[in-house]
């Protein structure tokens, strides 16, 4: 009599011997409900052996339930993290969109370089110089008389000569007309 060849329908055909041994071991010791029923029949019918087998089976079910619960908890945590990340990204995108200037935004022009007043006075907003209609100039930020630094000749004793207006300013505050030599004012 000839033996028919065994067809191995396994993804691990090269390791068929190991699979065959494992199948025999599983068949000899079935698990689950069928295994519990079979064990109760073979163990001389004692209630003690049935309860022991049932206890092992209950522990296996509990372990399976625990694994399922743990997996469900991990899945919930993963989905919660994804939802938080999505919400954070949406809020960040909304804030960035708000902080951007609109496309049709026209920046303010600022002040004109010169402002002309009705009495003939002008205000130079670049250099902060207020020029009165009589020609006197005042520093718009400090309120003091403006003196053009490029027209000054400074002397060692602290006096300076304003070559534009021909006025010699002495260290004690006395103003002298440099052409006539007359004292214009004394601020002491």
Structure write-up:
The protein is of the alpha+beta class. It has 3 domains: 22-92; 111-146, no CATH class; 148-188, no CATH class. Helix content is 41%, strand content 14%. Helix 2 packs antiparallel against helix 3 (47-99). The radius of gyration is 51 Å and the shape is rod-shaped. The chain starts with 15 loop residues before the first helix and ends with a strand.
TL;DR?
By secondary structure, this protein is an alpha+beta fold. It has helices spanning 16-28, 32-42, 47-99; strands at residues 114-116, 122-124, 129-131, 137-139, 152-154, 160-162, 167-169, 175-177, 183-185.
What topology emerges from the helices and strands here?
Layout: H1 16-28, H2 32-42, H3 47-99, E1 114-116, E2 122-124, E3 129-131, E4 137-139, E5 152-154, E6 160-162, E7 167-169, E8 175-177, E9 183-185
Antiparallel strand pairs: 1-2, 2-3, 3-4, 5-6, 6-7, 7-8, 8-9
Helix pairs in contact: 2-3
> Could you tell me the mean pLDDT?
78
How is the biggest beta sheet arranged? 5 strands, antiparallel
Which residue ranges are poorly predicted, with pLDDT under 50 across at least 5 consecutive positions?
none
Give the N-to-C terminal Cα separation. Answer: 141 Å
- Spatially, the strands of the biggest sheet line up as 5-6-7-8-9
Q: Please give the radius of gyration in angstroms.
A: 51 Å
SS content category: alpha+beta
The tally of structural domains comes to 3
**From the structure provided, what is the oligomeric state, counting identical versus distinct chains?**
single chain
The coarse silhouette is rod-shaped
Q: Please, how many helices?
A: 3
Give the ordered list of helices and strands.
HHHEEEEEEEEE
| E-strand count | 9
Q: How much of the polypeptide forms β-strand, as a percent range?
A: 5-15%
Helix content: 40-55%
């Amino acid at each position: 009599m000839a033996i028919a060849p065994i067809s191995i329908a396994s993804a691990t055909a090269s390791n068929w011997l190991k699979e065959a041994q494992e199948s025999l071991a599983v068949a000899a010791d079935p698990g689950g409900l069928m295994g519990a029923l079979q064990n109760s029949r073979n163990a001389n019918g004692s209630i003690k052996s049935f309860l022991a087998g049932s206890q092992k089976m209950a522990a296996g079910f509990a372990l399976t339930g625990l694994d399922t619960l743990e997996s469900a908890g991990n899945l919930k945590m993963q989905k919660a993290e994804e939802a938080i990340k999505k919400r954070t990204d949406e809020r960040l995108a909304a804030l960035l969109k708000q902080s951007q200037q609109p496309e049709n935004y026209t920046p303010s022009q600022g002040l004109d370089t010169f402002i002309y007043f009705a009495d003939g006075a002008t205000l130079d907003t670049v250099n902060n110089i207020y020029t009165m209609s009589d020609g006197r100039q005042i520093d718009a930020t400090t309120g003091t008389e403006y003196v053009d630094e490029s027209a000054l000749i400074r002397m060692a004793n602290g006096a300076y000569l304003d070559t534009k207006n021909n006025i010699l300013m002495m260290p004690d505050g006395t103003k002298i007309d440099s052409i006539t030599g007359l004292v214009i004012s004394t601020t002491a």
